[in-house]
Amino acid sequence: MLVTRASHPAKNYENDYLDWIHSDSGDAGVALVKEYASLPEKEREGGCFYRFLYEYGEKAGEEKRIPVHTPHGPVLLADGTVFYLGKELYGDDVFSVYTSADGGENFEKTGDCPIPEGYTKDQFHEVHCVELPGGRIMALFRTHLEENDDTFTMFRTFSSDRGKTWSEWEPTGICGSPPHLCDADGRIVLTYGRRVPEYGIYGREVFPDGEISEEEFKLFDGVNDDLGYPATVMLPDRTLLTVYYALYGRDKKTSVLYTRWSL
User: Fold this and answer.
1) Within 13 Å, how many C-alpha atoms sit on residue 152's CB side?
2) Which one of 63, 85, 111 terminates a domain?
3) pTM as predicted
């Protein structure tokens, strides 16, 4: 299993984020950050990483650096290529394509995905991709059209040459983000969170040509805006499992929750 992560430099947590950490996790979170001072300098640098886990996570392979990151990580294409479109968080904040021909052991840069004219790099984040029938790749981006915009949306672009070039980006008009795309045995499912009323975790079907259904369905009814980041997989019995975070019931802290459902 290939897993990815990203971490800010330790000084960011120690200086810029400490008040936020305290408000979110109290003294325990602050105490944890204080332990960062004892980390080796290499670990304090932060960055984007990937590694393999084996035996259901009991064993871990060597962790390696990669310039790009996106929360839901790379995707596996039909020809076995591991395709990773992400943002260079600690470089120029551009979106770049890295691919692996050996199952994810080693990656090389194979393309760029420049943002559309008239927008800034700070408006686009957290991309996820899917390979459509016929081989085209569709990418959806978390998009903020205004500063501190809670009604974030998604933009879409396509590549027909494995990420070397991309079509003109276009807005989807969907209220919610960030996107997750799941190929459910030939039917593609988009799931996302909405942080404005009506709060919740939502989904739509994506058609083979990349068009997104106008029909929206709700997987979880949220109580406030502290929710999101759904990820969906198909289980052996062909039902779908979507995992996300949100408040549960009258809890004061969020939990990792799931919904099991069918198309």
Assistant:
1) 24
2) 63
3) 0.93
State how far the alpha carbon of 221 is from the alpha carbons of 79, 194, 249, in Å.
38, 10, 10
Contact criterion met (CB below 8 Å) for 159 and 136: yes
Q: Provide DSSP, 137-173.
A: EEEEEEE-SSTT-SS-EEEEEEESSTTSS-PPPEE--
Q: Same structural domain for residues 8 and 73?
A: no
Instruction: Kindly report, residue by residue over 175-226, the tens digit of the pLDDT.
Output: 999 999 999 988 999 999 999 999 999 999 999 999 999 999 999 999 999 9
Domain that holds residue 177: 64-261
257 lies in the same domain as 175: yes
Instruction: Based on the fold, state whether residues 57 and 134 are members of the same structural domain.
Output: no
Per residue in 89-119, pLDDT tens? Answer: 887 779 999 999 999 999 999 999 999 999 9
